[in-house]
Amino acid sequence: MKKNVLLPLVLGVFTFILLPQESFSQERVKIFNIKFNAVEVTGQNRFSNGTQWYQTAIPSQLSSQKNDEYFYSLGSFRPDFKKTETLDLFNLSLQNSSFPFLDAIDFDYYKSYGIGAVESNHPEVIDDVKYLKLKSYIVDSVNTSIADKKKILFATPKLIKDYILLSRYEIITNQFSVDKKKVKQATANLVAQLDTIKVSNNAELSAKVKAYFSSLSDESTVLKGIYIDARLHPAYIAKIEAHISNADLSQIGNDQFSRSVKRYVNSDKAAANTALVAIRLDGTFDKTKINIQSIASDLTGKFQIPAADALKIAATVNLTFSNNETTTFKNKFNNTFIVRYFTSSIIDGLAFQGLKKAGR
């Protein structure tokens, strides 16, 4: 963004702010038509990041990414900080391609910090032969080029490779409770389907049983929220700054990363996505309550429905719950919703050696 922002700048899609968060009113987002206030998710009035000031406004329609892919955009940049379009930058580290200048930053970081972070967070790798072999190349080998080290990294089993790559991030997750009113909203489609199940020709009995199905839906649904605060690791940001501030243009190269970083540094409009906050919903059903025998027993005991009929109805109810668990909780909920991005002031101020910062 390359600007000294002292007051809110309301520009197009995004708002960038540098004011104390206490001065703002309650923020809220909507996911699957369910509204969440910031205070019930974060304990504060805002969806904020404690370390980085420049932030985008919350869009009316949150973007979603698969649960295991939401961090792919960290390190990308927006050529125009007023717009949502992004281009790859430091997130190119996740690609199995050669970017000499970026790779030099990455392997400097892995050697000095990343390896230690991996062993601290995943101590089991210390006894893994394949991990130890990779570590020897990253930390100890002086005769292996960075390009070859990267090839070795990407040829390593995915679990270990990902541990190394993801050490570039700092990811903090906190669970928050979802109240019963929101649970009812999340299961509205399930209840509608349960209402279509034929129970009896007796309207009064059918109404009572369907009320039981609705109650069963609410009581058996286990819904939790996860608030994600993810960012490029401060130690990684420090490595980025150190390498770029000590390099002149002749050292950068002309590959995809090189062109992007030149464009970013020389722009007075670009903003890097160096941190984000996001929300994920996880749901399931309590299997002790949702099973054919338990439901059939209730239908017989509470509503005097004959055992044979109760078993048939219970089987249909059980199948309806099972299908909804797949369509709603495993498919529909299998997304992380990005609330907003942040830009590190350090990354925002990047400049090549001997060159004046764009926009300053």
UniProtKB/TrEMBL annotation:
<protein>
    <submittedName>
        <fullName>Uncharacterized protein</fullName>
    </submittedName>
</protein>
